[in-house]
Amino acid sequence: MQPGPPKRSDFVDVDGRRLHVARWGDPRQPPIILLHGMRDHARSWDWIASALEDRYHVIAPDLRGHGDSEWADAASYTLAAFVLDLADVVAALGLERFALVGHSLGGVIAVRYAATFPEQVRVLCGIESIELPIVRDQMAEPKTYPVRLRHWVDAERARRRRQVRTYATVDEAVQRMRDGQPTLDDATIRHLTEHALDRDADGGWHWKYDNAARLRPPDDASGHDLDAALTAISCPTLLFYGDASWIPVPSKERLDRIPNCGIRIFAGASHWLHHEQREAFLADLTPFLAMPTERPIHA
Length: 299
What we know:
Layout: E1 8-14, E2 17-24, E3 31-35, H1 46-52, E4 57-61, H2 79-92, E5 98-103, H3 105-116, E6 121-127, H4 133-140, H5 145-161, H6 170-180, H7 186-194, E7 197-199, E8 205-207, H8 223-232, E9 237-242, H9 252-255, E10 261-266, H10 273-276, H11 278-290
Parallel strand pairs: 3-4, 3-5, 5-6, 6-9, 9-10
Antiparallel strand pairs: 1-2, 2-4, 7-8
Helix pairs in contact: 2-3, 3-8, 6-7
């Protein structure tokens, strides 16, 4: 499958910042929003968007601090802030009801959006998207809020002292991506890398994402908030996990909180399962997007 570029590339003004939005397909078709993960970008969805654009108006925003969207203050990368950005994008595009698909951090955001605005989300799909590492860590070894806050402050101050890593050539950055994602094919690695880079004034290259966005603030650690969000989801939900991923499948107790939920486990797939097994992923996703929303999902 060849990735197709977006038909439109727009910017939405949000509280003095610009958020970039890539779009495919006819705006008169049913809308679907695709949310990328941490350190990723909207063009990561090119393959999936190309497969769906004949039936849907496909919308892929760059999250704040990622891709071609502007950066935010270091303390403004909370889950609540990401949800607010999505709400502003939805309002700016005049969307009323849509399908929502998210990978990793994008899926975590999608879960909270679907819980907060259930009247807007027709169906929800999450790729390894329920529990953030910070939630799992807090469950395994609970720490008080002051301790978690201090750890975040220390990490943020340390981040400010670090130099931004630069690469002399695009190929050098491609190799860095290949080293970090050995399960992805070369064409995918190059595509993801080329759309993830900005040029330096001296001719080198650096990643577009804001390193501050990598630090999850202590307010995002509450598993109780996550449980409340899962319980509030009212639309059909389909979750994807890879059995070779570093992300574990959440407990049955947690998943049972989602009223109408199915789950697919991809054998041999890692955290990037929608790249590693695109055809299989689309074979499950496509009928799910088209199904009547009142039909129950079966795991």
